[in-house]
Each structure stands twice: as C-alpha cells, then as structure tokens.
Automatic annotation (TrEMBL):
<dbReference type="Pfam" id="PF14559">
    <property type="entry name" value="TPR_19"/>
</dbReference>
<feature type="repeat" description="TPR">
    <location>
        <begin position="594"/>
        <end position="627"/>
    </location>
</feature>
<feature type="repeat" description="TPR">
    <location>
        <begin position="40"/>
        <end position="73"/>
    </location>
</feature>
<keyword id="KW-0802">TPR repeat</keyword>
<keyword id="KW-0677">Repeat</keyword>
<dbReference type="InterPro" id="IPR019734">
    <property type="entry name" value="TPR_rpt"/>
</dbReference>
<dbReference type="InterPro" id="IPR039226">
    <property type="entry name" value="Ski3/TTC37"/>
</dbReference>
<dbReference type="GO" id="GO:0055087">
    <property type="term" value="C:Ski complex"/>
</dbReference>
<dbReference type="InterPro" id="IPR011990">
    <property type="entry name" value="TPR-like_helical_dom_sf"/>
</dbReference>
<dbReference type="GO" id="GO:0006401">
    <property type="term" value="P:RNA catabolic process"/>
</dbReference>
<feature type="repeat" description="TPR">
    <location>
        <begin position="560"/>
        <end position="593"/>
    </location>
</feature>
<protein>
    <submittedName>
        <fullName>TTC37 protein</fullName>
    </submittedName>
</protein>
<dbReference type="Pfam" id="PF13432">
    <property type="entry name" value="TPR_16"/>
</dbReference>
Length: 667
C-alpha cells in the first residue's frame, strides 16, 4: 500500500467514524497498520471506534499505543480522556487525573481556554475524591493563569470565592498546607471584593472570621481579621464577639481580652460573650456572686461555650453551690459535643471540677458519680491531684481500703503534695483518729496554707477531741478558714457554737449563726439558733426578718422550723389568726408533730374557734398520748362547749395518770 493509499484509507476511516460505521472504520485502520504498524492516526481511530463498539480494552490499548508513539501529540490524549470520562469503571479516576495533567502540560503554551477547561475538570475530579490539597493547588494554578492573562478584579474575586466553596468541607480533616491555602483564598476574596463596604463583603468577612476561629493556632490572623473588619464595619458586633469567645476559650485573660469585653458591652449591652467576659472579670476580682449572675445571664444567650460553663461552675464552687456546679459542668460537657467545642483540656478540667463538686455533696451516690467522672479524664492515673480526689470519692462511698491504698501511694510518690496529706487527714478524721488527723492537716497546711478547707478540718479535729482545752485551737483554725473563704457557711456555724457554748457571747454567736444561714439556706440548725438567740437578746425584728425571708421562699411542705417559730411568736404576741396560718403550714411539712397540733389548738382557742381547737387538741393527744396538757385542753374546750360528761371523763382520765394534776382537779 502506497502512502497515497494509506492517506485514502485513513480518510475513509475518519468518514466511517463520522457516519458511525465503526466496524468499517476498524477495517480501514487495520489495513493501514498492515502497511505501517506505527501509524499514529490509525491507532487513534481504532481507539475511537473500539470505544464506540464497547470494546474498552482494545480502545485503551490503542490510545496507549498511539501515546507511546507520539507522547506529545494531543489527539490520543484527548481521546483517552474522553474514553475515561465516559467509562463506568471507578478505578479509572487516578488514570484520568494523569491524563488531565498531561493535557494541561500540552495546552499550557497554546490554547489557554482549553487549558482552563481541563483544569476545571481536574479540580472537579479531585473534589469528588475529597483530595482537597490537590483541589487547592490546581485551582490556585488556574487563578495564576488568569492573573497572567490579565483577568479583571471581579473575575478573580469570583475565582477565590469558588476556591472557598470547593474547600469549605475540608476543615474537618485538613492538613496544614490545605488549611493555609484555604485561609489564603479567604484573604484574597475579602481583599478583592467590590464594593467595600457592602453586604456581600460583610458576610464573606464573617465566614472568614468564623473559619479562622476554628483553628486555635491562628490567633494572630484571627485578631487581625477581626480588627480589620471592625475598622470597616464599626457598628457590627460580630468580629468582637468572636474575638471575645476566643479569649474565653483560650483560658488566659490578658489586658487586651478585658478591653475587648468592655468594648463589646459598650456596643451591645445584651451580648452573650460580652456578659460572659464581664462575669470572668468579676471571678478574677473574687466577686463570686456577681460572677455567677453575669455568667448565668451570658450563657443563656451563648450556651455553646465549654470554658464559660467551667468558669460558672468554678464561681459556684467558690460560694459552695455544689449542686449548681455539677449542673454547670454537665452543660459544659454537653457543649463540648458540638463542633465549636475544642480541646481535651477543657473536657479534663470540667470532669475534674465536676468530681470535686460531687465530693462536696458528700453522699454515696454523688461519690459514685464522681468516680465515673474521674474515669473519663485522659491520663488521670498520672495526675496525683486527680488521684487524691478519687481517694476522697472512695472515702465518701465508704470504701475505706481503696481510699487508704491511694493515700499511702500518694504519700510515697508525692510527699510534698498538700493533697496527699489532706487525703490522709480526711481518712483519719472519718475514723475519729483525731491525733493522726491533726498531724495530717498540719502537714497539708504547711504545704498549702491558703486552703480554707484544711483549716476548717483541722478546726473540726480540735473541736471533737475529748480535750476541752483544744476548743481554743479550734477557734483559731475556724477564724483562719473564715478569713480565707468568707462563703464557707459551716465554719460560721461552728464559730457560732463556740461563742454560744464556750465563750458565752450570745451576740457574737447570733451574728455567726445568721451569717452561716445566709450562706447556706439548708442549714436549719444555724437558722433556728440565730432566731432563738435573737429572741433571747430581745431583738424580735432580726428574728422575724429571718423567719419572714425563709417562709417567703419556702415551697409547700418545706421550712417547718420557720413556720413553727413564727407561729409560736404570733401566738405569744396575741395574733391568733396569723398563728393559725403559720402552724398549719408547719403541719403540712410534718403532719405527725403532736406539739405542733397542740400549739395549733392554742391558736384556734385564742381565736375563739372552739370546735377546731378541740379537734387539734384531740389530734395532738392521739399522736402522743403522753401529752397530758392536750388532753386537759380538750376537756376544757368540751366544758366551754357544754359537753360536761365528755369533759368529766377526760379529767378523770388525766387524774388516773397524774393524781395531783391541779388544772384537771380544778376542771
């Protein structure tokens, strides 16, 4: 076959392909290859025809043969790309990417539009495969090509925005290089927008800042972006809020952070992060009640902030609201489940604080929950402070052997740690080994003198020692504990005991009990002592103010002691109707209190309600048959009501038990 005949055969093959006569095309090509086995065009046409006849292996082989013959000719590469694009096989994507790379190389010096088309296809392929680094690098090449071609600013802006879209899903499992390319795309998009300022640009800036806030190590870049956005949009609070949240999550509060909190609150007094920041400032200044108030308010608006929940729980611990602190820790752990919640560090801190709060609640169930919390802390076994907390949890649960084992291990491995000695002290104290407890608490105080709890327990140790001379030492320790922690209600309770029972200073004792009760509203003993001492001191105003405050807050069936005390006061001062109401409230809390029924009978009698008075006295004597006075009063009321036979029977019943009970004889 002459070269003229070869050309004619190739022309026939091309025409056959155009007319979709693929078998015919194959015949012409094979005829050419018999003559010229390395004919490039013949192999390309075989590739096209075989692909259309669904002979993939033959098609691929033909294209590859053509490429082998002429590696820098476009036709075979284009055909192979077309073949792979139409292929249903999933394993060809890697090969297709290689083909696209070769086409980019071949188009680079010539057809720029085709280069861009192939580039788009390659990016789409990588994106499907979630190969985000390759997506970023290839798209950046496309932008560079457009810049060299002199593309308009608006077109480049759209390309940077497209790159952001392509990479936005990559933040979950991003390597550092992809992350940097992603953030660079944002920076270019923000800086190439037109007009500035404008709504689209503002939203883009927000997205950029939100993205930066997910990378803790990008703090300088985040600060710059927030400051740049604030300069452009001085009335928009978003960048300041992000910056404030970042400072809160970092756990270190610099002057810059405090300045941000103030600026944000000036701009928006209802801003969640701003209010949280103010709460943290209060916490640092040891204004714990204000801290709790602000942090609670801020977290109602911005709840997905684990660090803020931790600060709130810490503030609640400082004022000994241990159950509240546990709830705050649980909220903090929940917030860590969300995508915004970073770091193992906060998780460990919150779990440790939760365990400490549960130990202060001091019952077996809370101790069990504390142990579970400690088990979730990463590397807990290597942290001696966490081990000491675990020892306390075992002690609260009644597992003395486990607690003692931890204590002994800590004293050997960490003899200079205050917590090691304190744990040993708590164990001795629980066993009433007061002399050993004294030694342990003194050792703990020597290593950490600013811990109020150690002074409190050393004081309690002295208080319960049989040697009365130790009571003075107890006073010294209680006063130190109260000075170190002015919210420690139980210390003020014992100071009250000291001044009342040892020093005989009723006025000072009353002040201490009142303070103890103000700090811990569940401490009824202190409340009752404060009221009783106020009455003894003739200060009814103070007694009533305490009782009024308690009864106002009390739910139905609660605070019996307060209702009873106030009811008796009203009874003594000739206010029977108020006495009836209060004594009824006391009985709702404890319907089986015979003395309370007796007092209620007196109140009804004073009011002239004889029938109900009679019922009350009878109820009292039913509940406690030894209450002779109630039986006598019931008889006296029956006498008033003219029920003489019943009255006589009741009087005789009393005289059988108590022959010389004068009121009954008189009756």
């Amino acid at each position: 076959m002459s070269s003229k005949e070869v050309k004619a055969a190739l022309k026939n093959a091309r025409d056959a392909i155009r007319n979709k006569e693929y078998k015919e095309a194959l015949k012409h090509c094979k005829a050419v290859l018999k003559q010229e086995k390395n004919n490039y065009n013949a192999w390309v046409f075989i590739g096209v025809a075989a692909a259309e006849l669904e002979q993939p292996d033959q098609a691929k082989g033909a294209y590859k043969k053509a490429i082998e013959l002429e590696p820098n000719q476009l036709l075979a590469w284009q055909g192979l790309a077309n073949f792979y694009e139409k292929s249903n096989q999933t394993d060809v994507k890697g090969d297709l990417a290689n083909v696209y790379h070769k086409l980019l190389e071949l188009y680079e010096s010539g057809d720029k539009q085709k280069w861009c088309d192939v580039c788009n296809k390659l990016v789409e392929l990588y994106h499907q495969e979630k190969k985000y680094l390759e997506v970023a690098e290839t798209w950046q090449k496309l932008i560079k090509m457009k810049q060299e071609e002199g593309a308009e600013k608006a077109e480049l802006h759209q390309l940077w925005k497209k790159m952001i879209q392509l990479l936005k899903d990559s933040t979950q499992n991003q390597d550092n290089k992809t992350e940097q390319l992603f953030l660079t795309a944002f920076e270019h998009a923000v800086n190439s927008a037109d007009p500035i300022p404008g709504e689209d640009h503002q939203n883009l800036y927000k997205d950029f800042i939100q993205c930066l806030s997910k990378f803790p190590h990008e703090m300088p870049r985040l600060t710059k972006a927030c400051n740049d956005m604030m300069a452009l949009y001085p009335t928009v609070s978003y960048p300041l809020e992000v910056l404030c949240l970042h400072f809160i999550q970092s756990g270190t509060l610099s002057e810059e952070a405090l300045c941000c909190f103030s600026r944000l609150l000036e701009m928006d007094t209802s801003s969640g992060p701003g209010i949280i920041g103010f709460g943290i400032k209060c916490f640092q200044e040891k204004k714990y009640k204000e801290a709790v108030k602000s942090l609670t308010e801020g977290l109602q608006k911005t709840s997905k902030c684990p660090a803020a929940w931790h600060y709130l729980a810490e503030a609640q611990m400082k004022i000994h609201k241990h159950r509240d602190a546990v709830l705050s820790c649980n909220q903090g752990l929940e917030a860590l489940q969300t995508p915004e919640g970073p770091s193992l560090r906060w998780k460990n801190l919150i779990l440790q604080l939760k365990a400490e709060a549960l130990i202060k609640i001091a019952d077996a169930d809370a101790a069990e929950e504390a142990i579970k919390a400690l088990e979730q802390i990463a590397d807990a076994s290597s942290d001696p402070v966490v081990l000491a907390i675990r020892g306390q949890a075992y002690l609260n649960k009644g597992l003395l052997d486990q607690a003692s084992k931890i204590s002994q291990e800590l004293l050997l491995s960490h003899p200079d740690l205050a917590e090691s000695h304190a744990l040993q002290g708590f164990i001795h104290y629980s066993q009433k080994n007061y002399e050993q407890a004294e030694r342990s608490f003194l050792n703990a105080i020597e290593r950490k003198a600013e811990t109020a709890e150690y002074h409190q327990y050393l004081g309690l140790t002295y208080w319960f020692m049989s040697d009365e001379t130790k009571k003075g030492k107890a006073l010294t320790q209680f006063l130190k504990a109260a000075k170190l922690d002015s919210y420690l209600g139980s210390v003020f309770h014992y100071l009250g005991n000291y001044y009342r029972d040892i020093a005989g200073d009723r006025s000072r004792a009353r002040g201490c009990y009142k303070k103890a009760f103000e700090l811990d509203g569940t401490d009824e003993e202190s409340g009752i002592a404060a009221v009783d001492l106020s009455v003894e001191l003739g200060d009814m105003d103070t007694a009533l103010s305490i009782l009024n405050e308690v009864t106002q807050k009390a739910s139905t069936g609660a605070a019996k002691w307060a209702w009873l005390h106030r009811g008796l006061y009203y009874l003594r001062t000739g206010q029977p109707s108020q006495a009836v109401a209060d004594l009824q409230a006391a009985l709702r809390a404890d319907p089986k209190d015979a003395n309370c029924w007796e007092s209620l009978g007196e109140a009804y009698l004073s009011r002239g309600s004889y029938a109900t008075a009679l019922k009350s006295f009878r109820k009292a004597s039913e509940l406690n048959p030894a209450l002779v006075y109630s039986i006598y009063k019931a008889a006296a009321v029956e006498q008033i009501l003219g029920k003489y036979e019943n009255a006589i029977a009741s009087y005789q019943q009393i005289l059988k038990k108590t022959e010389d009970y004068v009121p009954a004889l008189k009756g």
